[in-house]
Design goal:
This protein is mainly α. It is built from seven helices and no strands. Helix 2 packs across helix 3. The chain is elongated. The N and C termini lie far apart (49 Å). 16% of the residues are buried. The mean pLDDT is 88.
Length: 113
């Protein structure tokens, strides 16, 4: 399997989202996106940019051009990355709710266990 297809699978796994969800967020059919993940086809440039945006990764990284960025990431960084990508899929009303929840978690003192 080529680097691009492997990077698609790896990135979706890192974000905890399915191929079907990536396809939906990118405005693609499951079948079309499945062809990219399986290495059967490669997307055109505009589709590649949309998929990279959905996955929160640069086109270069997705294509394997920038393979030197193998920094070990903390669990917190991985969660922050997943949150950032998920936020892009939300509409304004849902974003308002998320802000309130995050602020409540971040700024209220924790109760002792």
């Amino acid at each position: 399997m080529d680097t691009f297809a492997l990077n698609l699978k790896r990135r979706a796994e890192q974000l905890g989202i399915s191929n079907a969800e990536v396809a939906r967020r990118a405005g693609l059919s499951d079948r079309r996106y499945g062809n990219y993940v399986s290495g059967v086809r490669e997307p055109d440039l505009s589709t590649l940019v949309r998929v990279a945006d959905v996955l929160g990764i640069s086109v270069d990284e997705l294509l394997g051009v920038n393979a030197t960025n193998n920094k070990v990431r903390t669990v917190e960084e991985q969660f922050q990355d997943r949150i950032a990508v998920a936020l892009k899929a939300l509409k304004c009303e849902d974003l308002q709710r998320v802000v309130l929840m995050i602020e409540a978690l971040a700024f209220h003192p924790k109760q002792p266990a």
